[in-house]
Amino acid sequence: MSTIPAALTAATVLGGAGALAAPALPYKIRIPAVGVLTAAVGVAGAVAGAAALGGSRWTASLPGLLPLAGTHLAVDALAGLFMAVAGAVVAAVAVYGIGYAAGHGEHGIGSRTAQTALPLFALTLVLVPVAASVSTFLVLWELMALASLLLVLAEHRERASVWRAGVWYAVMTHLGLVLLLAAFAVFAAHAGAETFTALRAGAHDISPTLRGLVFVLAGLAFTSKAGAVPLHAWLPRAHPEAPSPVSALMSAAMVNLGIYGLVRTGLDLLGGGPAWWWLALMAVGGASAVYGILQAAMASDLKRLLAYSTSENMGLILIGVGASGLFGAYGDRRLAALALAAALLHVVNHAAFKALLFCAAGSVLRATGLRDLDRLGGLRSRMPFTAGLFAVAALGAVALPPGNGFISEWLLLQSLIHGLQVPGVAVAVVLPLSVALIALSAGIAAAAFVKAFGVGFSARPRSDAAAAAEESPPLMLVGMGLLAAACVALALVPGVLGTGLDRAVAATGLPGSGAVFGGGLRVRLADISAWLSPVWVVAALTAALMLAVGLPRLYGRRRRRVNAKLWDCGGGAPTPRMAYTATSFAEPLQRVFDDVLAPEQDLNVTPVRESAYLVERVRFQRRVPDRIEHRLYEPVLGALNRAGQAARRLAGGSVHLYLGYGFVGLVVLLLVLAVGW
Amino acid sequence: MSTAVGYAAVAGQVVVVGAGAPVLTGWMRQVRARLEGRAGAGVLQPWRDARKLLRKEPVTPIGTGPAFRAAPALLVASTAVVVALVPLLSTDTPVSGHADLILVVALIALGTLALALAGLDTGTAFGGMGASREMTVASLVEPTLLLSVFALSIPAGTTNLPAIVSGAVHEPARLASPAGLLAVAALAVAVLAETGRIPVDNPSTHLELTMIHEAMVLEYAGPDLALVELGAQMRLTLLLGLLSSLFVPWGIATGTSWAALALALVLFAVKVALLGAVLAAAEVFWAKVRLFRVPELLAGSFLLALLAVTASYFLSGTS
């Protein structure tokens, strides 16, 4: 019973020690010391989370810690799940980070500021789900945002784009905070108190309109943190520009907390709501899934591709959470539990493979200095371990067996397919569309990751930097190996999560979908007959593979493999410049989705001066801009800019004018008071 | 117990599809040749080709990696697992509990993915081109496939394939419903796309502008090529067999008698041969559509699948 407070205290002490030690320690000791402390924070968080998943609960309030409101903490299984995921990711990535930062010099990720922020960020990732009152939650939430902002900005000396990404991130995360603050202010004001227990108790007495307002505001804030459209614009900027271990932490642990907030607020504190909340959430999820993965398929920057894939996966999770709420709104609580279990399982799976993908991308970046897939290639022979680890994670990301992503997507699809039992025309229209969107996003994800692996790691190097790449140091490989082991374990024996997942679902007040996992290995749905045994699939595939390799050998004469030049239709061995690049690979998809993506192209033909018929130079450029950003953000930013310009005219610099403003303001205020009272 | 018949059925499915797939391809080529006024090479020609290829020495093109080496075996293996799962001969097999339709769709996609990676692994322009086109088509087929799965699973209340098929055997009315017919139309187009037949891809072309599948496998030779060919032929047989199992399920053994299994074997061969002949005959009269018109075809089939789901929902809701 005392595991949770002990582990949380340990995490806090270790994280605090790391943050205090980082500025004081010399460069050589700083990175390993902070890395070890951060990893320990992660381990402690994972232990606390695992204990909560095992059935322990813990609550505490420390009245003196925050002025006025005090600090309220509570750990249930739902919080435990997110703590365990964050802790495990932090631990593995911190180990990886020691190796990564060691090669990066005194600036960037190894700097005093970044190394101070790192353990704090790790600590807040673990602690945000522990918060059990509005003020505690918001303080930790903001600390997390600030720590991650410092880390995103770590490499600002190296690239100007880092600074811009940081500004975008800072602005959007604080807009989210304002929305969240508004949501919780309304909620707490009407519930009468600000602890989560009081909010839970008071939620039912609030009018439906206000409840809807709270959900919409909080939903916007949390989906923005999760990187869902339309408030995703910070994610594809900040994730690629952050140092790779930080990208891994943000993409695999921080965005999850957006999901946590949504589940906590929508399903737990507000206790569910009318169907329109959840239909809206599913629409946001579906749009994120397809739009995110389409942009990922177009991206030729490896880390940008992974960032957009995060947007996609969060979209899938939001579809699951939305479906859960929808089924709950129609009264089918068992199905609601199933959909939520699928969503939470996908949170875990996504964290495992996405952390590994970002780490592998970081290894590539470290070895070659390149993120541009068009200039990579051939890394499988130069960096065999990294290539193999990337392949393991990519298999999870494409949601095909035997990868871990397949298991949760299968469960999600099952919950949607069987959702048609729920009456209601809205359900009958929305569920098939959701299934189609999930299928489309899975299909495009396959194309995107075939591109990432096939162009980045296969074929031949397309640049000198890629040709000279060297394998990462052992510590980075160990960190990635831990994450790969998690991916494999989740793919083979998801059943070990079974009871914990059920407890997490039950923490939202739904019945535990006890039928989801039985027998340790099998995903099985009791009231609906469908089941999947990942171990069986792997065993069958292995057996068939041996058969396919062995039988032809029995027949054919055994001959040694010989090497030969590439045939290429008689063209002989082509140069690397002739190989397909990421851009060319994505071209057919881009044409198919022309109307959605709206690419911009630019053709510049420069003729020779003597004759217009002889061409000297042809310059062709095509960009696939983020269309939502283009259409939604730029008008808003433009309007703000114009308003700012116009407002400058108000401040002419004359003291008389300012005194006049004061006078007019006072008179208006008095008039309002006089009339109003 | 039923296990002996069940295991025999699974083994029978794998052996019949494995050994029969080249024959089916030979048969389709023969039908096509006769319709076009040629003599044709005979039904057994694909087998003779395979024998020749298997005896050659394995060749690894310089500059290719493990993805290129592993893809042929992976293609055949993933297809073989699906063949074992899908109720082609019997719905009552030891593995029928694992035969989930979503798993089947995903395993078929796994084979596609392996081959696309192999195409990119060669580093040639053709390999990349084929991989890019194949993944584009595959990603657009996926929604149709899963929605058809959805439509089929509604009357049965499960995505378990043997349960769907045995339900249809016992209740033929399910098949004649609008939902069933729409789903068959949608699935048929998806099968054409997945197996790379006209009008999506032309299996006998080697013209760079048009080829998809062939472009990915240009660098294969010898035993590897034999496996790739066998894998593609098995996929065609499997998907035609799956279509026949879903929409003309009669004759598939639902019990545990040897006689029923033997009858199922004969009927399976007849059904697939007929479907193959129809497809081959249709290919004589169709032309391959432009690559960028393929999405329109697939969007059409997607719409059919969506209609199938909604139809089956509303029709089952009112009754």
What's the quick description here?
Chain A has 677 residues and is mainly α. Chain A has helices spanning 3-24, 27-53, 77-102, 112-127, 134-152, 160-191, 196-202, 208-226, 235-241, 244-269, 275-298, 302-329, 333-368, 379-382, 384-397, 404-417, 425-456, 464-467, 474-492, 498-506, 534-555, 582-592, 594-597, 627-648, 655-676; strands at residues 58-62, 71-75, 517-518, 522-525, 530-532, 562-564, 600-607, 615-623.
How many beta strands in the DSSP annotation of chain B? 1
Structural class of chain B: mainly alpha
Strand order of the largest sheet of chain A: 3-4-5
Radius of gyration of chain A: 27 Å
Order of helix and strand elements from N to C terminus of chain B:
HHEHHHHHHHHHH
Task: Please tell me how large the radius of gyration of chain B is.
Answer: 19 Å
Question: How is the main sheet of chain A built?
Answer: 3 strands, antiparallel
Overall geometry of chain A: globular
Q: Give start-end ranges of low-pLDDT stretches of chain B.
A: none
Cα shape of chain B = globular
Count up the helices of chain A.
Answer: 25
Query: Strand portion of chain B, in percent?
Result: under 5%
- Average pLDDT reading of chain A: 91
How would you explain this protein's 3D organization?
- The complex is a heterodimer of chains A (677) and B (319).
- Chain A is mainly alpha-helical and 677 residues long.
- Among the domains of chain A are: 278-352 and 366-550, no CATH class; 598-646, no CATH class.
- Helix content of chain A is 69%, strand content 6%.
- Chain A has helices spanning 3-24, 27-53, 77-102, 112-127, 134-152, 160-191, 196-202, 208-226, 235-241, 244-269, 275-298, 302-329, 333-368, 379-382, 384-397, 404-417, 425-456, 464-467, 474-492, 498-506, 534-555, 582-592, 594-597, 627-648, 655-676; strands at 58-62, 71-75, 517-518, 522-525, 530-532, 562-564, 600-607, 615-623.
- Chain A has a three-stranded antiparallel β-sheet. In chain A, strands 1-2 form a two-stranded antiparallel ribbon. In chain A, strands 7-8 form a two-stranded antiparallel sheet.
- In chain A, helix 2 (27-53) packs parallel to helix 4 and helix 12 (302-329) packs antiparallel against helix 17.
- Chain B is mainly α and 319 residues long.
- Chain B has one domain.
- Helices cover 72% and strands 1% of the residues of chain B.
- Chain B contains twelve helices and one strand; from the N terminus they run ααβαααααααααα.
- Chain B has helices at 3-35, 45-55, 66-85, 101-121, 125-156, 161-170, 173-176, 178-194, 213-216, 222-247, 258-285, 294-318; one strand at residues 59-61.
- Chain B is globular, with a radius of gyration of 19 Å.
- The relative contact order of chain B is 0.17.
- The model of chain B has no long low-confidence stretch (mean pLDDT 90).
- The chains are: A mainly alpha (677), B mainly alpha (319).
- Strand 6 (562-564) of chain A pairs parallel with strand 1 (59-61) of chain B, so a sheet runs across the interface.
